[in-house]
Write a structure and sequence with these properties.
With 114 residues, this protein is mostly helical.
């Protein structure tokens, strides 16, 4: 009995991977084995960096809040502690945006928690 191979599925799979490798340099874009490895590695990086992105943004927000709070003689940790005590439920993303783009609103928050 002849060997049965599903060429339709395997060709579709290769086509999908090569489509994902579009824009890569050299053989990474058009040679199946090289492209497959490059795409797999790229997907690993993408998964890892979706997590890292959250950490990086949180760190950026903290730096911006810290800079804004220090203008009014308070450290970041003191400011956040007083926010919690005053039951002000603004997250770091919003606080950082206010500190950077709307300093008078941020000053009002600082005055409220002092």
């Amino acid at each position: 009995m002849p060997r049965s191979v599903n060429h339709v599925a395997s060709k579709a799979r290769r086509k999908r991977v090569l489509k994902m490798a579009k824009g890569y340099f050299g053989r990474r874009k058009n040679v199946w084995t090289v492209a497959k490895n490059a795409v797999e590695k790229g997907l690993v990086y993408a998964y890892r960096d979706r997590k890292a992105k959250k950490r990086e943004f949180r760190a950026l927000w903290i730096q911006r809040i810290n800079a804004g709070a220090r203008e009014y003689g308070m450290s970041y940790s003191q400011f956040m502690g007083k926010l919690k005590a005053a039951n002000v439920e603004l997250n770091r993303k919003v606080l950082a945006d206010l500190a950077m783009n709307n300093p008078e609103a941020f000053k009002a928050i600082v005055e409220k928690v002092k």
